Amino acid sequence: MAVDTERVAQLTRELLIAIGEDPDRPGLRETPARVAEAAQELYAGVGADPREPLAKTIDVSQGPAPETVPTGAVLVRDIRFRSMCEHHLLPFTGRAHIAYLPGEKVVGLGTLARVLDIAAARPQVQERLGEQVADAIEQSLGARGVFVMLDADHDCLRTRGEKRADASTVTVAARGELATPPARAEMAAYVIIGVQNAATDAPNVQGRSE
C-alpha cells in the first residue's frame, strides 16, 4: 500500500496551523513535503508481508554441501532497526538479536534483517514487532525454534511524560525448541557475550549453539 504523500503533506500543514505555527514562514515552508517524503520510508511496511524475503530458501539437506547442515542455532546479533510507536507516532530505535534452529531450510543471514525491516516500517509496538518476526521465520522456514530479542530506546518514554532519558526496553519472542527456559537463557547469554565483545572491539556478528 503506497503512502498518500499529497495527503500527508496537507495534513502536516494543518498540524502546524493547529499548534499555532505559521506553515508559510521560511523554516517551515518545505516541512510538509519533507514529512511526506519521510513517511514513504517510515511506513513502507504497511500492508507488506514480512514473510516475503523468506520465500527464497536453501534446502540444506539436498544442497551442494549437506555436511553444513546446522546442528544448533544460527544467531545474528546487533541488527539495528527503527520503528514508529503507534501510540504517539514517535520513533523507537534499537538492536535486534534473531536466532533460529533450522529444519531443512535456511536463508541468507541478511534475509533476517529484511524481515525485521518490513515488520518495523509501520506504526508498531515493540512486543508485537518481535512476535511478528518470530512468526514469519517459524512459518516460512519450518524452523524448529525461533528466538527474537529486541532492545530499544523509545522517544515517547525519553522525551515526554516521565522523561526517562536512560531507559531502554527489552522484549523476547520465542517459539518451539528455543522457547524453553534453558534455551532462552542460552540465547540471551550469547547476546550478552556480544555486548561484552562490542565493548572491547571484538567481532560479534554471528554466534552458534552446538
Largest sheet: 6 strands, mixed
Order of helices and strands: HHEEEEHEHEHEHE
Distance from N terminus to C terminus (CA atoms, Å) equals 42 Å
Number of strands: 8
Q: What is the CATH architecture annotation of the largest domain?
A: 2-Layer Sandwich
Shape from CA axes?
elongated
Mean pLDDT: 89
User: What would you call the structural class?
Assistant: alpha+beta
Q: What helical percentage do the residues reach?
A: 25-40%
Structure characteristics:
37% helix, alpha+beta, single chain, 210 residues, 24% strand, 8 strands, GTP Cyclohydrolase I, domain 2, 2 domains, elongated, six-stranded mixed β-sheet, two-stranded antiparallel sheet
Summarize this structure briefly:
By secondary structure, this protein is of the alpha+beta class.
Describe this structure in words.
The protein is an alpha+beta fold. The protein has two domains: 5-41, no CATH class; 53-208, GTP cyclohydrolase I, C-terminal domain/NADPH-dependent 7-cyano-7-deazaguanine reductase, N-terminal domain (GTP Cyclohydrolase I, domain 2, 2-Layer Sandwich). The protein has six helices and eight strands, in the order ααββββαβαβαβαβ. It has helices spanning 5-18, 31-42, 109-120, 126-141, 155-158, 181-199; strands spanning 58-59, 74-85, 91-101, 105-106, 123-124, 145-154, 169-176, 206-208. Strands 2, 3, 5, 6, 7 and 8 form a six-stranded mixed β-sheet that branches. Helix 1 (5-18) crosses helix 2 and helix 3 crosses helix 4 (126-141). The longest helix has 19 residues, at 181-199. It starts with a helix and ends with a strand.
